[in-house]
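As described in the Methods, two query proteins were run sequentially through the folding procedure within a single session, without resetting any intermediate state between them. The first query and its resulting structure tokens are shown here.
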Amino acid sequence: MGKITFYEDRGFQGRYYECSSDHSNLQSYFSRCNSVRVDSGNWMIYEQPNYAGCQYYLRRGEYPDYQEWMGFNDSIRSCRIIPHHGSHRIRIYEREDYRGQMVELSEDCSSLQDRLHFHEIYSLNVLEGCWILYELPNYRGRQYLLRPGEYRRFQDWGATNAKVGSLRRVMDLY
């Protein structure tokens, strides 16, 4: 079980809302979000309701300003706790529908291009664990939560293109 607190103002000021489970629509609890405190668990927060829009991975710690989590603005409309998994395995493919070259990973990869010579990933299959996919190398850029399951095309994980720079396992728990 996790706990996250959203504050309307910077520096943990103003109205706040404490949360310990997934919420698909936080709009009725606060109008803007300028700081967050994560007391336990790993969380993905979203700019839009229903787990849509830009995603931001937060682990235990304090985020006194939305720029601390690389946010583009003060809009947070949904959140999801990331469940714990002991082991991690993911298969990535260079083409849609699991076609083309396939590589299976069980460790973080800071640069898919350097390690695998992949510039783009068009489909993937998360066999075990949860992963964060980053648009750029060295865990930067847009982020996407990948839960166990099949992703036949990049739109299935919420991306607008197939550009992928790095992958990280979600392991830092509670």
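Immediately afterward, the second query was submitted; its sequence and tokens are:
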Amino acid sequence: MDSMPERMTDHWWWLPGMRPGRRMLLWHILLDGQQEVSGLVRRYQDMLAGVGGLDLVPAEWLHMTTQIVGFEDEIPREQVEALVAGARRRLGALAPIEVEVGRLWVHGEGVALGIRPERGLDPVREAVRQAAAETAGVHPLDGEPGWTPHVSVAYSNADGPAAPIADALDRRPDPVPFRVGAAHLVAQVRDGHLYRWEHLAEVPLG
């Protein structure tokens, strides 16, 4: 596990430009059909169920954010089509990737599960990032190319000590395999303490 923070902070602040109902285009890696990974998340959530100040992520909205593209209302449709076409060319040249999910990561705004090898999914990130850069551009909210792939288990909704989380997670399930065979372009909104989205495109590897 990465080092445990001393305190948790509220995850649900608004990034610049975000507001209720405004949709953002992102590339996600989704857990569709990955029962072992979904089951592992559920076991962690069961351990955290009695801890206050956390919003557990519902199974249907589990994801691995891979690349921010930008706000939907700022990107013309033809750029979105070019984005998907560019990602399809690049991802099509990659074989599906096998990694392991389960490295516990408690950060200031939540609880997540990282992967091993830590850079195992970088080719997917690079492919969709290059496609974005050549079409819609890399959005300022995306920051630097550095990326820590993870599946969020729970988001913090309050300021408070992290010790109750550490106590709840004193036993940790073994990591599980995760086969990544596609990236998904989604139009995402923040709905209260939840991220939800509409699927726009599924682009397979290989």
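Residues 118 and 185 are 23 Å apart (CA to CA). We note this only descriptively and draw no conclusion about the first query from it.
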